[in-house]
């Protein structure tokens, strides 16, 4: 029997985010993923003797912007430090990072219920809408990428010097679901500010997890374990579920938790010891003498403020209030700025904004997952919604138009004509159909008049058939009822 | 007279009037090198062919057009070796030009060789070179000073018209003093460090070694100014130094810091400096007694901060990407250990270990951070002294050139050679050393003038006036 209910996990995250900038952090090399090996390098990012770093203002501005979006305090004067350690992927054998005076301190990430895993969205943990405090955000340079072969290793320095932001949370998270929601929410914010593409699978967002367990009610933290090799947000959740269960099982057996780094193996669905920490590493931080302190209060902060986007929470509120979309739809839209931009264009010209949201989020995404490259112009959705609301086509016809729209994108008005679908709303024509129906179905007429209300359906079916589905069903209903009770 | 004996200024005049050609200078220098380089060993690398070829196409209308200049072996010049007189940079060829080198190139200068130095600029005698010692042209049994000893010996020995050096704690001024030439350490931030192999980033400055103050000003004018590749360079506009020499020191307030005149210092050095001070007074300057109270801490502070920075700066020499690499390493750690133990000399290792120690957890507060605080006090010392005077006048070195080998086993005694030069690096001020006399045994003595930050013009004017009123600079070494 599991006694997990008696235990509580304590989780803290360190998230590394590659910034989306034109050039690298300290040199003029292009900052782009996927170039030919060692083609995006220069004396500075290769750490050649005598080369010097020059800070990238765009990266500093984007870090400040991230801090502003997450409610951090922005340091008026920030500094860079050298972090000393030897490894071949680190060209200078020290990394330029920030230690004592990072650009941002404090701040928080709010956990939106819809950013929890689907299966947890109705639970109390998701509905709690907790806010997870951040310790700090600092800016540093990424290292190169190593490749290990049988006898030798190779290094691709294209990544060396990419601007890298490290976001450190307090140990406020308690469940794998919260960690999942934290990362999703953070990713939303990063995307909304165009700070990073934040794709974990491409290594643009990387996450180290610290996790320990303790009896519920205990104040002190248990011995923490660091988890590495987490390559997706759902992977973080799976790894935590496994690791927390492993730690609880161990302490229940009376075993001590090792202070160690463990590697998550997604295929095996388990964590394995990578290295045990004999002692804390001494990085011998000291102020980077090649760089002046960064004054953020002389234009950098105000430049970042000017670039502040509408934050996900505010966007969701607005979409629900002004467009009448559901909370879930608002959260999906806020999570994807490209999709949201597409939707907002689609909804712009029509009063039926909620209907457009349904079309896009339910039907459109199922066939065309990438709105950015879709040949379907967003305005078409507004037009389609107007055609239905205006009675030109009914909802069954609208489905046909939609299918055609996906296959051969062009104006829904044109498609309605092309498919010959325009609804018949002409009263004279409809009366003629109804008269014909009444004449041809005396049984049904009798039944209806005898009080069997359902009998009218046979008459409606007759009209729809005769009109090849084009008769306006609401009007037909009204006309038939009027004629039968006359 | 051989053109090798002339100054940059005079060669410039004769080149632009087409009286001589750049090739004539290079040939004369190569003749001198052929005759005396064997004894002096000022260079680690000489490229005669390249210098002659460059001389043929030199553009004498440029400020330094066709003038050969020697480069200290820690300045990157595209395609050339840059060994820092260390085994660890064996086979390395510079993949780019240092900004200082590019600016000289742009001004038309041609490069004829790379000068010897203490390994990674760590030393005061050029004896810490993995590529052999350099001898003082005034007495080949003595050291030329260091770390820019090769540059100083080349200029003094007429093996180069002018040279670049680097100064972290006195490495331009002390060898200039000991070899009887002019050495300028500009204000920190005046000349870009981009391409200078870093020893201690917050202290390093590139500067010229020349025969005259005028030449020093000509080179400084070509080298100075903001560089987008060096975040620590100053943003002020470029200027031409000593464009209008006044030849006068009238009205100058010359400060004599009492901490630089110590009982027991070399008597001949002290006498020369006092005589020089007297000359200033006689010519209309006022002598002011000032104090730089934290001077006694300077050496200790320097050997903490400089080594701390060096321990990180030299971490990149690991055999992974360039330079020497251990053969068949067992594993990564073994590659690092063997590459570095075989590649670095003992003084460099000593300083890396010292720097690593002072930054270590548990010690950084007592050493590194405390030293940073004292550095701030030293800076204040200079600031308050310069409210009372325009320039400071001190000896450059406590004594003239000492015999080869005398201090190689006593690092602490060796460190004292920089006692009068180190503080200006810590404070960031500019300073110049120029000849002010000779000992009875015919060894040069150097006078140091220290200016306020970015006060080079004032410093050069005073130095030039003093120099032109004397003929110490005209004397030729016996070698």
Describe this structure in words.
- The complex is a heterodimer of chains A (486) and B (479).
- With 486 residues, chain A is an alpha+beta fold.
- Chain A folds into three domains: 4-302, no CATH class; 311-418, no CATH class; 427-484, Arc Repressor Mutant, subunit A.
- Chain A is built from 16 helices and 17 strands.
- Chain A is elongated, with a radius of gyration of 30 Å.
- The mean pLDDT of chain A is 91.
- Helix content of chain B is 36%, strand content 13%.
- Chain B contains 15 helices and eleven strands.
- Chain B has helices at residues 8-16, 22-40, 48-56, 99-106, 149-156, 173-179, 213-223, 267-282, 298-313, 332-343, 346-359, 365-385, 411-415, 422-427, 456-468; strands at residues 43-46, 68-72, 110-115, 162-167, 182-185, 205-210, 253-257, 286-290, 391-395, 431-438, 444-450.
- In chain B, helix 7 runs antiparallel to helix 15 (456-468).
- The model of chain B has no long low-confidence stretch (mean pLDDT 96).
- The A-B interface holds A 43, 46-55, 82, 84, 86, 88, 91-94, 155, 282, 284-286, 289-292 and B 74-76, 82, 84, 89, 92, 94-96, 98, 193-198, 200-202, 228-232, 308-309, 311-312, 315-318, 320-322, 332, 336, 356, 359-361, 364, 368.
Key features of this structure:
heterodimer; A: three-stranded antiparallel sheet; 16 helices; elongated; B: alpha/beta; Amidase signature (AS) enzymes; eleven-stranded mixed sheet; 15 helices; 36% helix
In short:
The complex is a heterodimer of chains A (486) and B (479). Chain A has 486 residues and is an alpha+beta fold. Chain A is built from 16 helices and 17 strands.
CA radius of gyration of chain A: 30 Å
Coarse structural class of chain B: alpha/beta
The multimeric state of the shown protein is heterodimer
Provide a count of the helices of chain A: 16
Beta-strand share of residues of chain A? 15-25%
Spatial order of the strands forming the largest sheet of chain B: 1-3-2-4-6-5-10-11-9-7-8
Average residue-wise pLDDT of chain B: 96
The end-to-end span of chain B amounts to 17 Å
Largest sheet of chain B, in brief, is: 11 strands, mixed
Mean pLDDT over all positions of chain A: 91
CATH architecture descriptor text of the domain at 3-239 and 436-441 and 468-474 in chain B: Alpha-Beta Complex
Task: Supply the helix-strand structural class of chain A.
Answer: alpha+beta
Largest interface: A-B, 28 and 44 residues
């Amino acid at each position: 029997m599991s006694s997990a209910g008696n235990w509580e996990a304590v989780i803290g995250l360190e998230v590394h985010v590659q910034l989306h900038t034109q050039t690298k952090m300290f040199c003029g090399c292009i900052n782009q993923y996927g170039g030919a090996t060692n083609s995006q390098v220069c004396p500075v990012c290769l750490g050649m003797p005598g080369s010097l770093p020059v800070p990238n203002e765009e990266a500093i501005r984007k870090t400040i912007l991230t801090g502003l979006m997450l409610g951090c305090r922005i340091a008026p004067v920030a500094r860079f430090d050298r972090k000393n350690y030897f490894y071949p992927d680190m060209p200078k054998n020290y990394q330029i990072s920030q230690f004592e005076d990072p650009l941002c301190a404090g701040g928080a990430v709010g956990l939106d219920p819809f950013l929890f895993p689907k299966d947890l969205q109705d639970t109390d943990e998701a509905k709690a809408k907790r806010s997870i405090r951040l310790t700090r955000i600092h800016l540093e340079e990424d290292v190169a990428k190593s490749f290990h072969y049988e006898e030798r290793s190779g290094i691709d320095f294209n990544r060396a010097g990419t601007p890298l932001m490290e976001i450190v949370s307090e140990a406020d998270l308690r469940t794998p679901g919260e960690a999942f929601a934290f990362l999703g929410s953070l990713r939303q914010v990063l995307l909304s500010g165009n700070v990073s593409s934040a794709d974990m699978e491409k290594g643009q967002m990387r996450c180290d997890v610290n996790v320990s367990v303790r009896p519920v009610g205990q104040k002190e933290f248990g011995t923490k374990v660091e988890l590495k090799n987490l390559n997706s947000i759902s992977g973080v959740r799976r790894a935590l579920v496994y690791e927390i269960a492993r730690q609880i099982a161990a302490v229940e057996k009376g075993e001590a938790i090792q202070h160690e780094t463990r590697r998550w193996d997604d295929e095996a669905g388990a964590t394995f010891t990578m290295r045990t920490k004999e002692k804390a590493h001494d990085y011998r931080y000291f102020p980077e003498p090649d760089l002046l302190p960064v004054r953020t209060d002389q234009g950098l902060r105000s430049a970042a403020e000017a670039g502040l986007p509408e934050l996900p929470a505010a966007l969701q509120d607005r979409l629900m209030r002004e467009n009448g979309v559901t909370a879930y739809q608002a959260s999906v839209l806020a999570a994807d700025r490209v999709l949201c931009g597409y939707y907002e264009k689609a909804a712009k010209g029509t009063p039926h904004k909620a209907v457009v949201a349904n079309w896009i989020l339910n039907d459109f995404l199922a066939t065309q997952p990438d709105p950015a490259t879709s040949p379907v112009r967003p305005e078409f959705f507004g037009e389609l919604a107007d055609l239905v609301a205006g009675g030109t086509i009914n909802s069954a016809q609208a489905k046909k138009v939609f299918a055609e729209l996906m296959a051969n994108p062009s104006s829904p008005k044109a498609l309605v004509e092309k498919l010959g679908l325009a609804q018949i709303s002409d009263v004279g024509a409809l009366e003629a159909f109804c008269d014909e129906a009444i004449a041809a179905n005396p049984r049904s007429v009798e039944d209806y008049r005898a009080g069997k209300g359902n009998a009218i359906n046979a008459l409606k079916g007759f009209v729809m058939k005769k009109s090849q589905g084009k008769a306006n069903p609401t009007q037909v209903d009204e006309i038939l009822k009027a004629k039968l009770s006359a | 007279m051989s053109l090798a004996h002339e100054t940059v200024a005079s060669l410039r005049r004769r080149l632009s009037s087409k009286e001589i050609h750049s090739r004539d200078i290079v040939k004369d220098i190569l003749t001198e090198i052929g005759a005396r380089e064997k004894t002096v060993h000022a260079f680690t690398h000489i490229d005669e062919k390249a210098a002659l070829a460059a001389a043929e196409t030199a553009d004498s209308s440029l400020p330094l057009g066709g003038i050969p200049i020697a480069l200290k072996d820690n300045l990157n010049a595209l395609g050339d070796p840059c060994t820092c007189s260390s085994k660890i940079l064996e086979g390395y060829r510079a993949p780019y030009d240092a900004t200082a080198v590019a600016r000289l190139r742009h001004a038309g200068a041609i490069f004829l060789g790379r000068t010897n130095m203490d390994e990674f600029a760590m030393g005061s005698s050029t004896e810490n070179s993995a590529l052999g010692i350099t001898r003082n042209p005034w007495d080949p049994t003595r050291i030329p000073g260091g770390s820019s000893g090769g540059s100083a010996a080349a200029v003094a020995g007429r093996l180069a018209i002018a040279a670049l050096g680097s100064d972290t704690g006195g490495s331009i001024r002390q060898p200039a003093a000991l070899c009887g030439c002019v050495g300028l350490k500009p204000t920190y931030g005046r000349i870009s460090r981009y391409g200078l192999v870093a020893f201690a980033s917050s202290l390093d400055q590139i500067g010229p070694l020349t025969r005259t103050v005028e030449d020093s000003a000509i080179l400084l004018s070509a080298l100075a100014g903001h560089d987008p590749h060096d975040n620590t360079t100053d943003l002020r506009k470029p200027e031409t130094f000593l464009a209008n020499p006044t030849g006068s020191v009238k009205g100058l307030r010359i400060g004599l810091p009492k901490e630089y005149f110590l009982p027991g210092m070399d008597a001949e050095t002290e006498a020369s400096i006092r005589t020089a001070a007297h000359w200033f007074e006689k010519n209309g300057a006022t002598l002011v007694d000032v104090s730089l109270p934290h001077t006694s801490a300077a050496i200790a502070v320097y050997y903490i901060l400089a080594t701390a920075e060096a321990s990180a700066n030299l971490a990149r020499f690991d055999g992974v990407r360039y330079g020497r690499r251990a053969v068949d390493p067992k594993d990564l750690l073994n590659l690092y250990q063997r590459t570095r133990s075989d590649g670095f000399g003992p003084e460099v290792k000593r300083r890396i270990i010292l720097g690593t120690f002072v930054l270590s957890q548990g010690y950084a507060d007592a050493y590194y951070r405390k030293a940073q605080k004292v550095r701030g006090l030293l800076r204040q010392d200079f600031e308050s002294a310069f409210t009372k005077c325009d320039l400071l006048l001190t000896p450059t070195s406590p004594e003239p050139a000492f015999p080869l080998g005398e201090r190689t086993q006593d690092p602490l005694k060796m460190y004292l050679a920089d006692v009068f030069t180190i503080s200006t690096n810590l404070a960031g001020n500019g300073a110049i050393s120029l000849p002010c006399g000779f000992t009875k045994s015919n060894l040069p003595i150097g006078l140091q003038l220290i200016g306020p930050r970015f006060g080079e013009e004032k410093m050069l004017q005073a130095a030039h006036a003093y120099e032109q009123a004397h003929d110490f600079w005209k004397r030729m070494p016996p070698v």
